[in-house]
Every structure is written in structure tokens, then in C-alpha cells.
């Protein structure tokens, strides 16, 4: 199925038509059919202390993207009380435990796209590294940087630090294009070549670079652009 793009424009969930509310959409479309912000809104249920629920959800997503999502970090979000902090922490921990119980195969671009596509509706570019073992099973996904993809921001040191630590044998690069245009830019091609060369020195193969939106993807391996 295709993700249905959705932006929450109302200041209050109660102002929204019932069929467009996050929980109603989740029931209708299933968890995979709603955006990240809608998932967080569904977990929170409502806003608090003068802050609408979508504002709280955006702050929480920012923490998740930055990797700073401890209870202490969440407690610093204005309007997020102990009960909501506990709900978010419980949901994230349950997801972590369930996803770590079995390895997921990532043997083709479509399977990788399914893994990262929820980043497709972000308004900034998110550069991700998918780490694989020798059987091309998922070991983890690391968010390297947020912002335009260029050689200054996407440094081999940051890209390969976690794969080295986790003893990955291969990685797949992925980043979203907020515009929806999946053509690789000159910077995309330059960064790909640079990281592929670095991977050869480290013994970690760069299998592919996937450029994606919320609805589609482009595999540089399939198009022969891996050089």
C-alpha cells in the first residue's frame, strides 16, 4: 500500500473532522498508513498546558531523530507531563523489544524502502545508514544527519562509526528528498562515491544508496549510479 500523506493543520484535535483525527485514521488505514506525527498524536491522545497535541508530537519526533529520547529528555518538553512521558517511553521500549526479537532481511531495495519510508514526509533531508550482517539481515538503522546531503555534513567518520562498532559487513545509504524529485543531485553522487571508497578501505561494502519520498524510491544500484 501507499502511504497517505497527511498534515495536521488544526490547532486542536477536537477541531478536526472525526474521520481525520489520528486515532480514527489509524483504525481505518492501519499503523503503516499514517505518518509519524499522527502515530505520536495517537499515543498522546491530547495536548496539555496550552500546547496542542501536534506541537508536542513534533517536539517528541525531534528528540527521537536526535537520539535523545530518555525520560529526562522528554520531561524537558513543555507541556509533557509524567503520564504522557511514561506512555511515550513505554511505546518506544515495546517497539524496540519486539523489533530486536528477530532479524529482518534486507535483500532488495524495496525491503529497505519499506524500512525507512516513514522518513519520507519530513520537511528536511534525513541521511540514514542501514547496517547489515553477512546474510544481509538488518542490524540497525542509524540517523547520521538532518539537512542537505553534502560532503561536509555526511562524513565517513560519522557514517561508519556505528557499523564498525556493531561489526556490520555491509551498509545501505538512504535519504529522503522532501521535494519528491528522486533524481540524485551532484552532491548525492559525490557523497556516494566518497563513502563507497571509504567502505572498501574499511571492509564494509556500500551496497546501495536509496533516494526516497513517502510514496516512491530510486535505487542507485538498480539505475547503475553506484559507479
Largest sheet: 5 strands, mixed
Enumerate how many helices there are, as a single number. 8
Unreliable sequence segments: 1-7
β-strand amount: 5-15%
Name the CATH superfamily assignment of the largest domain.
Cytidine Deaminase, domain 2
- Class of the largest domain, according to the CATH hierarchy? Alpha Beta
Question: What is the CATH topology descriptor of the largest domain?
Answer: Cytidine Deaminase, domain 2
> What is the β-strand count?
5
Report, as a whole number of angstroms, the end-to-end distance.
32 Å
Over the alpha carbons, how many angstroms does the gyration radius reach?
A: 18 Å
Structure description:
- This protein is α+β, with helices and mostly antiparallel strands and 227 residues long.
- The protein folds into two domains: 13-99; 109-219, Cytidine Deaminase, domain 2, CATH 3.40.140.
- Helices cover 39% and strands 15% of the residues.
- A hairpin with a 4-residue loop joins β4 (205-212) and β5 (217-219).
- α2 (36-44) crosses α3 and α7 crosses α8.
- The protein is globular and about 55 Å long.
